[in-house]
Amino acid sequence: MSNIGQFLQNVKEQGGFRAKLRNRLFSAMINGFEAIDADLNEKQAQLDSIRSDMNAMQEVIDSLQKRMDQAETAVGADRETISAIRNDLEGIGTNLRNNNAAIEKLSADGEFVKLKLSGIDRRLGKLSAAAPAENAQSAAAETAAAPAQPADSDYESIDYFDFENNFRGSIESIKKAQAFYLKYFSNKNNVVDIGCGRGEFLSLMKDNGINACGVDIYEPYVEYCNNQELNAVCGDGVAYLAKQDSVDGIFVGQVVEHLQPWQIIRLCNTAYEKLSDGGCIIIETPNPTSLAIYTNAFYIDPSHIKPVHPLTMKYYLEKAGFRDIEIIYTEASRPPYEIPELKLRDGENTEEFNKAMKQVSELLYGSQDYAVVAVKG
User: Fold this and answer.
1) What is the reported pTM?
2) CATH number listed for the domain at residues 154-375
3) pLDDT of 81-100, one tens digit each?
4) Cα-based distances in Å from 289 to 49, 84, 315, 363, 367
5) Are the C-beta atoms of 137 and 69 separated by less than 8 Å?
6) Geometric angle at alpha carbon 277, from 275 and 283, rounded to 5°
7) Residue extents of the structural domains in the chain
8) Measured between alpha carbons, how far is 324 from 332 in angstroms, rounded to an integer?
9) Beta bridge partners of 232
């Protein structure tokens, strides 16, 4: 074959190759487009399914929103009803508390009247059995002519039974508060209640099967306790304690604030001397570390001399020989007030301020009473 022929043959062969190559490329592109189209169709189907699901979810959301709107309307009406009911209940509760307080006051006043009538009956009996009438008239005339003498103590110038009924609180409320001390006397057999008053602690001991005797210098208190079948004697509590061979428990509730320091020291020394090993003394008194006592209670009672600081009371007991001593600030005597914490919306740190105000709150509204518990041995 000539050179020209060979060239033409090569060109012809090359043209055929290019045509085949072009056809293959077109075929591949078409196949690619078809695959892409199929993939797009699949994605579209998935999108349609998702869109359908979203529409269904939107319908559910719309339905829930409608129900929530209906519920909110109903809750608003119910909230008003609940608020009205709550106000009614609070009013009923207030009335009940007031009625209970009134009933307790009437009950205490009734006991006071019974005690007075009993005293009048005794005095009338003594008068009827006394000397002839003329002597009685002569004595009465002399008494009337004599100048009035001042009372030897506040207990002679004030009817303390009536005073306690007005300011101390009901007997049941005091017993409830003193129930905290039961755990210290649960295993005791010979407890002395110095300054037993109306006998709240004695009654608490009796209710729990603990043998106890009360001592008080105010005779009407002792008479009232005996009328309630509580064991009590009239006299000086420390002098009574000094005559005992041994006791295993001593309670001194709201007494030391009526005493001079030397009398408190004498009480602590005598208690240590007469307590058996393992025996305890509990002294409860107003808490001068809480300013609330000066506005609420302490100066109401004219027989109070001065409050005794808890560290002073602890010191007296330590010097008497006690070593196991605990100071308790009673929760039952805490006023129902406190300074609320400061909370700011911008996130500013108020921890230090609130910590300081907590101390101020304790100073103003801390427990109005504290108790010192001392165990011998």
Assistant:
1) 0.62
2) 3.40.50.150
3) 777 777 666 666 556 555 55
4) 75, 42, 16, 6, 9
5) no
6) 45
7) 1-107, 154-375
8) 24
9) 214
